[in-house]
Each structure stands twice: as C-alpha cells, then as structure tokens.
Amino acid sequence: MTNVDLKKIEQAVTMILEAVGEDPNREGLLDTPKRVSKMYAEVFSGLQDDPKKYFETVFDEGHEEVVLVKDIPFYSMCEHHLVPFFGHAHIAYIPKGGKVAGLSKLARAVEATAKRPQLQERITSTVADAMVEMLDPQGVYVVVEAEHLCMTMRGVKKPGAKTVTTVARGVFETDAVKRNEILTFIRS
Ligand SMILES: Nc1nc2c(ncn2[C@@H]2O[C@H](COP(=O)(O)OP(=O)(O)OP(=O)(O)O)[C@@H](O)[C@H]2O)c(=O)[nH]1
Ligand SMILES: [Zn+2]
C-alpha cells in the first residue's frame, strides 16, 4: 500500500466524526479512524495498480473468435459521493495475431480499475482501452451493470435501479450482430 497516508485518513475520519456531532473518543469509535484508513487503502488500492499490466503476458493460441468472461463481480466507490457502487462486468474480445490474455487477467483488470474513486462509464472505457492498447484485438465489447448506493440509500432513493454502460471498440463498433451475440450470451 505505497503512497497511502493512513495517518492522514485517520485524522480526516476523526474530523468527520466530530463534524457530524459524534464523540470520536467514545469506546465504540476509538478504533474507527484506524479501521477506516485500512479500509480506504484497500478499496482504493487500484490507484497503485495498472489494468494494462495484466495484459503484458499473452498466449499464442491461434484463437481468433470471441472470448467472453461474464458476470465478473466488482465493487467500486462513486467519486461524487464516496459511497459504493457494485455489480458485474462482462468482457468480450476477439483476439488478433495470437494475442490471447489469461482469463483471470480480465477480472484483475476490472479490479484494478474499480478500486478507485470512479464513474461507471470510466470503468467501462478504461478496461476496454487497456485491452485495445495491450492486445490490439479485432474488437472489444465491455458491458458493466451496477447499482449505485448514492441513488438508493440517499438522494433520489431509487433502490433496484440498475445502470448499464457499454463500450465497443474495433469490429464491435460497427457489427451489431456481433454485439447482440454477446448480449445474448450475457443474458443466458
Ligand atoms: N454519469 C455518472 N454519474 C454518476 C455516477 N455515480 C454517481 N453519479 C451521479 O453523479 C451526480 C452528481 O450530481 P450532483 O448534482 O453534483 O450531486 P447531488 O446533489 O448529490 O445529486 P443527487 O444524487 O441527485 O442528490 C448524481 O446525478 C449521481 O447519480 C457514475 O458512475 N456515472
Ligand atoms: Zn454518487
């Protein structure tokens, strides 16, 4: 956890507790700043990570058809309210020239991208663009579905509302049949 100033987070949490009218010295809250600092270091650990690095190792399998890893669960933090949003990412790509990534690396790239103050759109495009840059595939199609606590526990209060974002690159940009094929697999 380099570059994370745990002490500063602790001080900030103490100040927030004071500011909302709590007593940071009451027994139940004594260790809270420390716990929250460790929790923030964990949920923002993607800031020390790079989704692209997971695509440095590739396999030449001669596979030039669709690879889809679906239902990758993720948890992220809305950068506007610093409350969680969470759901699933689905990543499809069509390799080119033998550049096939390890399957787990798609999930690792999602994790590295999600564990930051984020927007759902940016998670979607960052993962797609990392794959384009590193794998130079024929196409990438990333679909992210999530529920935002800032829309459910506060504000507009619409529990159950789901946000779906998609990013298509390469052949998926122009080929609606290929996109629909992926959407069918995702729903099945
Ligand atoms: N596009 C996008 N918007 C998001 C995301 N997460 C949260 N938001 C929105 O960010 C917006 C921030 O709006 P503001 O008007 O600045 O903040 P606010 O007064 O707290 O807004 P309300 O949530 O409507 O109460 C809200 O509409 C949120 O729903 C995201 O991942 N993508
Ligand atoms: Zn929000």
UniProtKB/TrEMBL annotation:
Alphabetically sorted, this entry's keywords are: GTP-binding, Hydrolase, Metal-binding, Nucleotide-binding, One-carbon metabolism, Zinc
Q: Which PANTHER family match?
A: GTP CYCLOHYDROLASE 1, GTP CYCLOHYDROLASE I
Q: Which GO terms describe its cellular component?
A: cytoplasm
Gene Ontology biological-process annotations: one-carbon metabolic process; tetrahydrobiopterin biosynthetic process; tetrahydrofolate biosynthetic process
* GO molecular function per UniProt: GTP binding; GTP cyclohydrolase I activity; zinc ion binding
Q: Where does Zn(2+) bind?
A: C78, H81, C150
Which Pfam families does this one have?
GTP_cyclohydroI
Specify the GTP cyclohydrolase I domain's residue ranges: 9-186
Keyword check for Calcium, yes or no: no
EC number(s): the record gives 3.5.4.16
Its recorded name reads GTP cyclohydrolase 1
Q: Which pathway does this polypeptide act in?
A: Cofactor biosynthesis; 7,8-dihydroneopterin triphosphate biosynthesis; 7,8-dihydroneopterin triphosphate from GTP: step 1/1
Q: Which family does it belong to?
A: Belongs to the GTP cyclohydrolase I family.
Please give the subunit comment from the record.
Homopolymer.
Q: Which domain of life is it from?
A: Bacteria
Its recorded reaction(s) are: GTP + H2O = 7,8-dihydroneopterin 3'-triphosphate + formate + H(+)
